[in-house]
Amino acid sequence: LIQLTPDLPLAGRRVVVTAGGTREALDPVRFITNRSSGKMGYAIAQVAREFGATVTLISATTHLPAPSGVKVMMVDSAQALLTAVSDVYDATDILVMAAAVSDYRPVELADQKIKKPADHADLTLRLTETPDILKTLAARKRHQYVIGFAAETQSLLANANRKLTSKKLDLIVANDVSKPGVGFNGDTNQVTLLRPQQQPVTTELATKSVIARKILTTAIADGAGKQA
Ligand code: CTP
Ligand code: CA
Fold first, then answer.
1. What is the CA angle 84-171-17, rounded to 5?
2. Which of 49, 88, 170, 199 is the most exposed place for a label (fewest CB within 10 A)?
3. Cofactor note, please (predicted)?
4. ipTM of the modeled complex
5. CA 154, CA 178: separation in Å to the nearest integer?
6. pTM for the full predicted model
7. Would you say the CB of residue 164 lies under 6 angstroms from ligand 1?
8. Mutation test of ligand 1: which of 130, 136, 149 has the most ligand atoms closer than 8 Å to its C-beta?
């Protein structure tokens, strides 16, 4: 069936994409987050749908409209994202972790709005590490093809290769987010795709939709998520 429908190369495949920057609450009105727009993940979800997949997009808060034909689940924190992805993971063929997961969260969540101290003293926040969702799930992968991102500002390929290996990924999308037009927030990206034992593939600067196609066609060429 897959050979007969080359325009729908992901027909019958279940793709889960995470997107956006998680929010880690401090109190009822404040949170810690990052500059992720969610655009790269939404573009991947859209292209996976166009390729015929059944797509679930698990999204942190963004300003983006839901891609058509895609099931969208909204989450806020890293912990909520872990729970949501874990719940669907066994029934997933391809996982794409495009979300910018906060690496730390406040140790304490105040149940009332934190007040300024009367003496105007400095305020110290204590943060603790969040779970590594990608590493946790890739460690229990069976048929799943697992794709991660690496957002770097230096030593792009060395750092991305280390993540590819240490997180046991099938593909990592290396992003030099210090370059103009690359990574967080914009409508364009330029990436290098790294896979175990294969030559790196570097793309031109292109729209996130074009980059999404390149990521998915590379995964498809690897036989991504096919049940043996
Ligand atoms: N990631 C994750 N859970 C986390 C942190 C990151 O699943 N708690 C995922 C991201 O979605 C991304 C990949 O891991 O696909 C790499 O994220 P990145 O921030 O580049 O790397 P880290 O492993 O967090 O390391 P560092 O931030 O120190 O470079
Ligand atoms: Ca990180």
1. 25
2. 199
3. Binds 1 FMN per subunit.
4. 0.99
5. 8
6. 0.95
7. no
8. 149
